[in-house]
Amino acid sequence: MGLDGTRTGSRTGPPASPPEPTTPTTPAALPGAAHPAHQRASLALLVLAGGAVGSLGRYGLTLALPQRHGWPVGTLVANLVGAFLLGVLLEMIGRRGPETAAATRVRLTLGTGVLGGFTTFSALALETERLLAQGGAAIGTAFAYAGVSLVGGVLAAAAGVALGGVLAGRRGGAA
């Protein structure tokens, strides 16, 4: 009997879990998709192509902006600019309403591909470790670099979201 006095019946297994919410980024929500996004070769190729473009852009930036006073300037700039642009992109896509097939392609190509390839957490970790390994004054540089990268990345993304909201509002896409 249930707490309200009604018969509840018996169960042989664990209680059913609630259905997973469907959001624009869950595979079930991708419009017109016969298969989840990660199983669609066409979308994987878009991410691959975008990643190649972004990685080449980051490589060029690190050549143009070499280390200064122990700071890996190219990686820092790539990560901050990438976080900002990702904030703009995702906010503008999000403000347009439910994700369409075209928006999915743009998000995966530019967000996951280009900006995912342009930014790099692994280089941040490696460069921080190398600075720490130098010891002495480089330890302070390592902590400053990691802190500026992480806090700056969050602030850059927030600024990008704010700008994306303004731009989406100008285009008539604001909620």
TrEMBL record:
Pfam families assigned to the protein according to its UniProt record, in alphabetical order: CRCB (PF02537)
Record region (Disordered): 1-34
Cleaved signal peptide residues: none
Family in the record: Belongs to the fluoride channel Fluc/FEX (TC 1.A.43) family.
Compartments where located: Cell membrane
Sequence intervals crossing the membrane: 43-61, 73-94, 106-126, 138-168
Chain sites annotated for binding Na(+): G116, T119
InterPro entries: FluC
Taxonomic classification: Bacteria, Bacillati, Actinomycetota, Actinomycetes, Micrococcales
Chief location: membrane
Source organism of the structure: Cellulomonas triticagri
Gene Ontology MF term list: fluoride channel activity; metal ion binding
Residue ranges with Low complexity bias: 25-34
Regulation of activity: Na(+) is not transported, but it plays an essential structural role and its presence is essential for fluoride channel function.
Membrane topology (UniProt): Multi-pass membrane protein
This protein's name: Fluoride-specific ion channel FluC
